[in-house]
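Training component of the fellowship. As part of building independent skills, the fellow (R.M.) carried out the full modelling exercise for a liganded target. The chosen ligand was zinc ion. The inputs are recorded below so that the supervisory panel can assess the work.
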Amino acid sequence: MKRLLLAVIDGCKPSMLERAVERGEAPAIAAVLERGAFVPELCAAFPSVTPVCATSIATGVLQDRHHIAAMNWWSRAERRYVEYGSSFRAARKLGIAKQLTDTVYNLNGSHMAADIETIYESLDDVGVRTAGTTYLVYRGRHEHPISRETALTRLAGTLFRKPVMGPRELFYADIFASRETGCRSQMGLPGIRDQHSGCVGAWLAARDLYDFLLLSLPDNDTYSHKNGPHAQPTSIAAADAQIVRVAEAAGGLERFLDTHAVIICADHSHAPVERRIDLRGAFGDWEVAGPGGRAVEEAELALCPNQRAAMVYGLVGEARSTVIPRVVETASAIPGVDIVAWREGEEGVIRGVGRGELRFRVGNPAPAHPELRDARGNHWTVEGDLGALSATTSDGRFDSPDYPDALRRVWAALTCATAGDVLLSAGPGWEFPDWGGADHVGGGSHGSLHHSDSLGALAFCGVDRAPASADGAWSITDVAPMVRAHFGIAPN
Ligand SMILES: [Zn+2]
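Fellow's submitted model of the complex:
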């Protein structure tokens, strides 16, 4: 059986991947495309931000099952914000040690649902030799002690002392390293530094130490945030160079592809950003929990900006039924907000600002409301204004190309136990600044339900197509089943 390389290029925009290949600057991706397939519409989760999507890639389920609701979310259990690293400014505002602990330990150790399996866990259980570079999700079946004192461990003090459960070979920002490779990541948390992944990957490939390797290539996202999506060919070429580096260590690209299946995928895409949405200002009359706002005991709301999406939590349990409609009205009036979604019992409601409201529920058609099938073959009952999602129906099919896989993604977000009560998606060109006030105006960002930041790239060879829908609409949740199937693990 061939080994399998899963390379995740953060934020990889399909048109920019094609451009890098056309220019001859991405030889590894070009070789994979030559031998295999290209999918230009790999649909992200909503919010289309890295923690949610990275977890969906690693598990094959959306956040209704995996519980990683967003980059920034409110823990109702602990009554505090959880922040996985929107920006350094946001981390400083909400507490750097807390942010590091949430990202490095709690995401895997307690936030992610215990009753789902990561691909590492599935493969570890059948004796596949797993290996991973610095990626937000690392949960596996092998224990790893902290490797050495680093700048990061000193920053987070005594919090960083516990061993973690990871793949057989785990390399994570110099904090965990199952072998002495000589590769150094400095402060390379998830979100920075492809070269550490390439260095570690090449070291492992040269010694034949894995059957499955997750090669995390996050720098494209950082570059695109700063320089805009159109600049991505440069950073995709840089990511490709790290794949080449691993391939060279295994005997060169041709030999590598003879011995390896390869999946290269994005977690989400990127869209240009021109303007900021004033979320805090819009809720200025409310008692909002957090820095510069109200103490938790007195707060009515928690606000969680997530780049081109946001979540609002009602904090006063008994008042939630009256608070949510007021939040919806306030949110609908904020310039730049495109979609407002919330839940009413077993129904989801999606308001397209200025385009009406659509109500939907899973399957179970009432006779008066014929059941519709979406592009992934999921069944829904839909009422109200299709215009809310610029959707159309014909022959029992529901299509919303501007908002791909909209119903499944919004329903997963609304039924995620840790998500907000009201979800917001930004219109093209707009972004919610994070808790530190940081934005990406003039560059690129993502998070929304819109196709521009939802549809990422997928290329693969040597591995069977995912058992996706007959209609062929792809989702990031198709990646884990492809990986499992390659190693003979049947879907459960
Ligand atoms: Zn990003």
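The panel noted the following from the submitted structure. The mean pLDDT is 93. Residues 11, 50, 221, 225, 446 surround zinc ion (CB under 6 Å).
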